[in-house]
Amino acid sequence: MKYYIVDAFAEKLFAGNQAGVCVLDAPIDAELMQNIAIENNFSETAFLVNKGPGDYDLRWFTPGGEINFCGHATMGSAYVVKRFLEPELEQVHFNALCGELIVRYEGEYQVLNAPRWVGVDKPVKPEWEKYLGAKILECKKTRDTMIVVDDPEAIRKMHPAEKDLLEIDDDMCVIVTAKSNTPDCDFVCRVFAPAGGIYEDPVTGSAHSTLIPYWRDKLGKTHMESHQLSRRGGVLICDDLKDADRVEMAGKCACYLQGELFL
Hints:
The chain is an alpha+beta fold. Helices cover 22% and strands 43% of the residues. The radius of gyration is 18 Å and the shape is globular.
């Protein structure tokens, strides 16, 4: 099985978020995909099956199970398609659990057109501020739980316990975000996902399906830049397409490894 490791939403190698990308000749059993994801031990491993020119079925697995949408592994998959499989493409279509995803190729950048998720208010427990070490301004629930805090520097420094994060959301991700206090971006975030077997996800495209609509309303902007403040770090150029009920996020990718799995 052809296998690649791609750093997605990365300005250079060893940044962004690592995605394992497996290129399949035909669908394989979900148990085998899960075992490969556990063996890789990245936040997500993607599995691609070609259905025709520029058209692929796409599934994602964390070490803890299958998920319905992963942005960075979609970007990594699109990079593999363009560089190694169909270099003539201007865009690629993926069929996934969350519906159709399209990635356009624009020079060094890839632009992912993705679902738009608007959060509903979620009650905040008093102890959550202690867990995170920051004052909570709002909490919204989509697939994930998004917590808005008052201090971007507190986000950079926080190291909440896994058990506390699971109390906040024991099903999917905990997104912590704040308005940027520097001119180089509009908002910052970090994403924790112990429910999926990952303490912290380095750069998270799917979280931006929630973040982009929220910050559009707060900042009054449809075009924004996001910095994810993990150790590896990531940069996403974001656009809100409210009328189409979609968002777009653009970034660069770098390929770390091309190889084969022996199964």
